[in-house]
Amino acid sequence: MLGGIGVAETVAGQPYEYQRRELVEPDWTRFPGWRDVTAAQWQSAQWQRVNCVKNIKQLRAVLGDLVDESFYADLEDDHQRLATMSMLLPPQMLNTMVPDRAPDTASFYADPVRRYMLPVATDRHLDWPSHPHATRDSLHEHDMWVAEGLTHRYPTKVLAELLSTCPQYCGHCTRMDLVGNSTPTVDKLKLTLKPVDRYTLHLDYLKAHPGVRDVVVSGGDVANVPWKQLEAYLMGLLSVPTVRDIRLATKALMGLPQHWLQDDVVEGMHRVAVTAQRRGVNLAVHTHVNHVNSLTPLVARAVRTLLEVGVRDVRNQGVLMRGVNATVGDLLDLCFALQGEAGILPYYFYMCDMIPNAEHWRVPVWHAQQLQHDLMGYLPGYATPRIVCDVPFVGKRWVHMISDYDREHGISYWTKNYRTSIEADDSEALSKLYAYYDPIDTLPESGQDWWRKQQQA
């Protein structure tokens, strides 16, 4: 009997088969423009920043004739008509595209990291490039500023946007309204205060609001804040006795790990971490990795260094995106590499926000629910990520927490249990339903027809 069951299980197999894969640093010399780059140059944060790819001319210089002219034309078309973020790619990140060989046009088009870091026009759904309810500041973070760059959205938590730049720009950026350079499609907002004045206002607000205990320090990316400024800001937060959690948000831990390995940064992080420990404050770093190919030994070394100097946790907040990671195999491959090889805790996967020209990335709620179901049971419980929908005016909700769901029209309805900083006088804030919308191309034809009629009305 037991033998018979075993045979049946062997024949059937598991939906996902785990196999350990050690991290590998791709050979950057496979790119014509980097054939003479030394290991010392590659590991230099300064070299990485100086050699970031910011335009098509610089991309050509790296790729040479590996990809056809048609790709560059496609990329230029996207920049002129559709892109909400300008191009900015550190060599470290570009090197994780088609990591196992020199790319050709087909493999470069298909690459998952390329698909969200270097989008082209033909990636997008030109019939529905944007949802009718998409907005530039889809989460209304700017509306909830209590001081320039300080969003008070949740009762006990604030988001501190210290600056509006990053070492790399992601095509799907939820803060595309503020972060990065303006594009032909988007004229960006600007921070106007001097950093020291902005930081002072943040600290003044926290001291005046002792109910806020958790500060997410972001931007932009904190890796672009000059270290002395960042350390002073963090020490200022640590001087506020009611602040008990500090989270530093940096995609550069993956996109530019060389930054976090610089001597002055390592020594400074040690000073901050020791101070946090002495004051009983939880200090964590949150990064943003969307695909397993982005994890390399340099990333793992940067994470290990942060943990060695006293950072309590390093966690990952990814984004679900079609064509990048929206299959259970992709997510499990990524999570096992994060947790088992890089020392990063899988924490959240967000559904991609409803910003303009992002419909081709977004997944419907039902798909996210299925992914959460299919993830369960493979990873350790503490390392099983939660898939969440960041609902406008509501905040993060596990994807199974919907109150109602109109699958035909792709409208889910959600409730919340707190007021944001702009709803203090709204007596109905805790009783009404809030809508979130699936990408229209995933709906049945009847639902797509309904939305077409809505647009024509």
From TrEMBL:
Superkingdom field: Bacteria
Keyword Nucleus: no
Residues spanning the membrane: none
UniProt entry keywords in alphabetical sequence: 4Fe-4S, Iron, Iron-sulfur, Metal-binding
Signal sequence annotation: none
Name of the protein described by the UniProt record: Lysine 2,3-aminomutase
Organism of this sequence: Actinoplanes lobatus
